[in-house]
Amino acid sequence: MTTFYYEYIRYRNFNFEGFFNSISDYDIERVISKDKLNIYDFLTLLSPNAEKYLEIMAQKAHRVTIQNFGRVILLYIPMYLANYCINKCAYCGYNADNKIKRNIMSIEDVRHEAELISQKGFRHILILTGESRAKTPVSYIKTCVAVLKEYFSSICIEIYPLKEKEYEELVHAGVDSITIYQETYDEKTYDEVHLSGPKKNYKYRLETPDRACRAGIKNVNIGALLGLNDWRKDVFYTALHAKYLQDKYGDVDVGVSVPRIKPHIGAFQPKSNVSDKNLVQIILSFRIFMPRLGISLSTRESADLRNNLIPLGITKFSAESSTKVGGYLEEKEYEDSGQFEVSDNRSLEEIVEMIRSSGYQPIFKDWENVI
Questions:
Q1: 8 A C-beta contact, residue 45 and residue 334
Q2: Eight-class DSSP state of 259
Q3: Residue limits of the Radical SAM core domain (predicted)?
Q4: How far is Cα 132 from Cα 28, in angstroms, rounded to an integer?
Q5: Phi and psi for 171 in degrees, rounded to 5?
Q6: Under 8 Å CB-to-CB from 32, ≥6 apart: which residues?
Q7: 164-173 vs 138-148: helix axis angle to the nearest 10?
Q8: Mean pLDDT, each 10-residue run in order, the chain (371 residues)
Q9: DSSP H or E run through 354
Q10: Rounded CA gap, 86 and 131, in Å?
Q11: CB neighbours of residue 357 within 10 Å
Q12: How wide is the angle at C-alpha 3 spanned by C-alphas 213 and 246, nearest 5°?
């Protein structure tokens, strides 16, 4: 069965340095003027030389976004169900070796937290767990989804990779979206930072979106954890992956996230620094390359940066996020340090007002339903 892994192999040994050294100003200007870009055009926009064209790229990305999405920003909120994990990932606060308080929400508290969140107005929710089939089996996820369906119109899961049959079970239960990050597409680096546990299986994780799409999921969100490896390479493979999914599964909405490594429990140091300017170049390149691509921006980023990125291609925004299990209940039994530090701590009301003052409409249901 064909999967993205075989597409990845075709480009695994691509000479990035040679390509970037060959890019001229003319090449960049030619790509920006094109209506339809190929993957090498995308890489041209990601080149170091293209950094001096960000203003022109921003103008085009803005036009393309308005043409395809209008002036709307979909708001969602994450909900951490559990932080038990059997993986040992060098960069993650959930690393099984880290001495953090481990929690799992009871079904009663899932309902309580769902009530609190839905009362704020949210209708899209992202539920997350660590990777522990013993503590958070698929049956537990299904039970949680059954409760959450009473409060939310869209449920996205960001959990461990499942078998195709298991995705079918969750789709039937009411899950319509998945988020799955490859973390880094470089196999060698992937093996180095995933010390042990089932997540060490690079190919199985890489093929997860294929299994979910075959199972009937409606929306797939992918990405790399920017900083684990050379960010230009990881962004290139992310775009290659997104284009593959969009072409192969025409009835699935494909999106990307652009998370940068944030402070967390542990001493891992990123392999590459991804500056704010780099992040802008990444978002602009994605938008120009794939006009219909969803692009999410989380509260990992600062309020000022998120404000400025709205017109440049962003379509989804998280708000009032907590990365703690039971983080909205404010009960002592769930107190933990969270998966990573949140940088934008504004209230939902403040974010809604900011979006409106920027000339955009904040929405709580999928944008397609309001056009």
A1: no
A2: P
A3: 68-306
A4: 46
A5: -60, -45
A6: 45, 53, 56, 57, 60, 288
A7: 20
A8: 93 97 97 97 98 98 96 96 96 91 95 96 96 98 98 97 98 98 97 96 98 98 96 98 97 96 68 93 98 95 94 94 88 67 89 96 70 38
A9: helix 348-357
A10: 6
A11: 9
A12: 50
pTM: 0.94
305, two tokens? 């940066």
Residue 248's SS3 state is helix
Specify burial of residue 208 (Cβ count, 10 A radius: 0-12, 13-18, 19+). Answer: buried
Specify whether the CB–CB gap between 79 and 117 falls below 8 A: yes
The CA distances from residue 360 to 69, 133, 143, 293, 314, in Å, are: 11, 41, 36, 18, 11
SS3 296: strand
Tokens 């990992």 appear where? 300
Q: Which helix (H) or strand (E) element contains residue 191?
A: helix 187-193
Residue 285's closest CA among 95, 73, 74, 41? 41
Question: Cβ contacts of residue 272 below 8 Å, gap of 6+?
Answer: 227, 229, 230, 231
Do you know the residue count of the chain?
A: 371
Nearest-angstrom CA–CA distance, 247 and 220: 13
Phi and psi, residue 74, nearest 5°: -80, 130
Q: How far apart are CA 247 and CA 343, in angstroms?
A: 35
330's tokens: 């404010």
Q: Residue type at 245?
A: L
Structure tokens at 41: 């055009």
Q: Which residues of 43-58 are buried (b: 16+ CB within 10 A; e: fewer)?
A: bbbbbeebeebbeebb
Q: Residue 138 corresponds to which amino acid?
A: V
